[in-house]
Automatic annotation (TrEMBL):
Region named Disordered: 312-354
Gene3D superfamilies reported for this sequence: Spore Coat Polysaccharide Biosynthesis Protein SpsA, Chain A
Compartments, record wording: Membrane
GO cellular component terms, A-Z: plasma membrane
Stated name of the protein: Glucosyl transferase
CDD domains documented for this protein: DPM1_like_bac
Transmembrane segments: 240-262, 268-290
Length: 354
């Protein structure tokens, strides 16, 4: 059975999940009434990003009583953005909403997003966190620093405090599917496309259960991916450091010649040692920055899939529930042997009802 063509339903809700078994029941309890009240044909694409807990089992239990729930399971943990990519690429809706499973972004706002997209005819509706008082001070400060840095380094007209809670039209989804991005950062990629957009403001809530999947290490990784994917600023920094080092070496050379001609004695060991350390450090920094970009080119040339889909409950031939460990897994991720991978517009701010 082939997956139905894009646009087969009005609304798709994509939810990346990793070790969220405690959150799933509460998420379904809040999300299902919201979507049922919209009176449109919809699907919920839950992407299990290789969870090591009972997330797959809990999702399968919920799917028995909720036919709109579609489960996409990745064979290994590929990361939040890769799981989000898998969901966006397989969603069939005319409109596609992405939301995290932790309920910090209220599902009730989806109704406002869909209404605004239809009434104003925009392609993107951003969920903007107007109140982040439930986050820690450290989280708020680092988030503010991230958005400030991205605006200046990347140059994208980035909506303030807008994460991965957004609505996209089918036109935007098709463009995203064609892009060759290996490590997409959607909070920068979507604004850079220039589609007309609007904003819905809401209050960020406390995490329903479990622990955050974005600790400091992942936040730093996201900041680096954002910078490296959208800007050559680190390479320019390496260039400027090289020029400054070259200028400094010229000055030291002139100083050394003048001291030699004047008959002055230059202390040898300390000055030479410090100079070698300084220039060696600058060279290593430059080589490291260049190495990061060369590594990305290398990964792109390898053309390895960013994720592998293990199953999709929309296809009865692919089991929605966890497979028997004794059964051999399809090495390429699908039953038939094919890999299934995966200037800004005006914005209008409106308050959320939810």
């Amino acid at each position: 059975m082939e997956i139905s063509s894009a646009g087969a339903v009005t609304l798709s809700v994509v939810i990346p999940m990793f070790n969220e078994e405690d959150v799933v029941p509460g998420l379904v309890a809040r999300l299902r009434p919201v979507l049922d009240a919209l009176a449109v044909d919809y699907e919920v694409v839950a992407v299990d990003d290789g969870s090591g807990d009972g997330t797959a089992r809990v999702l399968a239990d919920q799917a028995r009583s909720w036919s709109h729930l579609r489960i996409v399971r990745l064979r290994r943990n590929s990361g939040h953005q890769a799981a989000l990519t898998a969901g966006l690429h397989r969603a069939r809706g005319r409109w596609v909403v992405s939301i995290d499973a932790d309920l910090q972004d209220p599902p009730e706002v989806i109704a406002d997003m869909l209404r605004l997209a239809r009434e104003d005819g925009v392609d993107v509706v951003y969920g903007v966190r107007a109140d982040r008082s439930t986050d820690t001070v450290f989280k708020r400060r680092t988030a503010g620093l991230y958005y400030w840095t991205m605006r200046r380094v990347v140059g994208v007209d980035l909506p303030a405090q807008a994460g991965d809670f957004r609505l996209l039209s089918r036109d935007v989804i098709e463009v995203l599917r064609r892009l060759p991005e290996r490590t997409p950062v959607y909070r920068l990629l979507v604004p850079s496309l220039g589609f007309t957009s609007a904003e819905v403001h809401y209050t960020r809530e406390v995490r329903a259960a479990g622990r955050t999947k974005y600790p400091l290490r992942r936040m730093i990784g996201l900041a680096w991916d954002s910078t490296a994917n959208f800007s050559a600023a680190p390479l320019r920094l390496a260039t400027w450091l090289g020029l400054l080092s070259f200028a400094g070496s010229l000055l030291l050379t002139v100083f050394g010649v003048a001291a030699y001609l004047g008959g002055a004695t230059i202390p040898g060991w300390t000055s030479l040692f410090v100079a070698v350390l300084l220039f060696s450090a600058v060279q290593l920094i430059c080589l490291g920055l260049l190495g990061e970009y060369v590594g990305r080119i290398y990964r792109t040339v390898q053309d390895r899939p960013a994720f592998l889909v293990g199953s999709d409950s929309i296809d009865p031939a692919e089991p929605a529930e966890p497979a028997d460990p004794a059964e051999p897994a399809d090495p390429v991720g699908t039953r038939d042997g094919r890999v299934r991978s995966d200037a800004p517009g005006q914005r209008a701010a409106v308050p959320a009802n939810g």
